[in-house]
Write the structure tokens for this entry.
Amino acid sequence: MANDGTGRSVRFEQETLSRVVEQAEMTQNIPYHVAMIMDGNGRWAERQGLPRIRGHQVGVERVEEIISAAPEFGIKYLTLYAFSKENWRRPSHEVNFLMELLSTYLDCELATMKKNNIVFNTIGDLADLPKVIQEKIARNKKETGTNTGLVVTFAFSYSSRHEITQACRKIAGEVAEQKLRCEDISEQTISDHLYTAGLPDPDLLVRTSGEMRISNFLLWQISYAELYVTEKYWPEFNKEELAKAVESFQKRERRFGRTHAAEADPKTSPSFPGVKP
Ligand code: FPP
């Protein structure tokens, strides 16, 4: 936990956390699904004269902290952009390091996920990953599959355009096989053919390191998500920063294209496919 030695940060965090949780209970204004673009590991490390890979290591510590803190804010789904399809173009030593880090993470965090009732889930083109990692992912999914708490979805080798293209192919195939009629294709049909089928759309999208970009992440799913961009680099994004993001969400008025929040009925909104907890 961040602390300047005087207890100030600890106090700040406790005060913010209690306020955010109290507000959430009063208004039920909770971002049930939070998606995160974890950017800035490299810059954080470079700024301190450290190798870029050190940023990824500290980034994993923040992943652990955010997963552990999320349920306290009422968050039920956390979706983390860990590795994009475009990230394969990075220097091979960095890609190899990230794969090693992922492999270790999958081994080390399994017990914690089981203990904390977390469901481990993934989206992305897993076939791109080394076989040993694919096996560890399958193991972790199986061993946490009956848990009932926070659903943590990692995006590995993920590209939203690729996901949508795949969905179009599957839907076209079903039409060709006469399992589906063209006129019956709805927005729900498309949602049901994405990697995220069965997950509610994100309520809040957080991006660290100040860049105002979506970077090919959940393009379909974030149609009505609230956006929160912080200048903090991902290795600095701790529980206190999560509290600030949730607090910012609580102050927003979500209208879903209507004129006033009071008229916005989440049940009939396109961003709530009826799987809200
Ligand atoms: C972006 O920072 C971050 C990534 C490409 C990887 C995100 C990965 C982690 C947070 C750790 C890995 C997670 C697991 C679960 C093993 P960047 O390198 O693009 O930073 P920069 O924009 O400053 O260069």
Notes: The beta strands are 33-37, 77-84, 119-123, 151-158, 204-207, 226-229. Residues 38-43, 56, 59-60, 63, 82-83, 87, 101-102, 105, 234 surround farnesyl diphosphate (CB under 6 Å). The domain at 29-159+200-230 is CATH 3.40.1180.10 (Undecaprenyl pyrophosphate synthetase). The chain is about 45% helix and 10% strand.
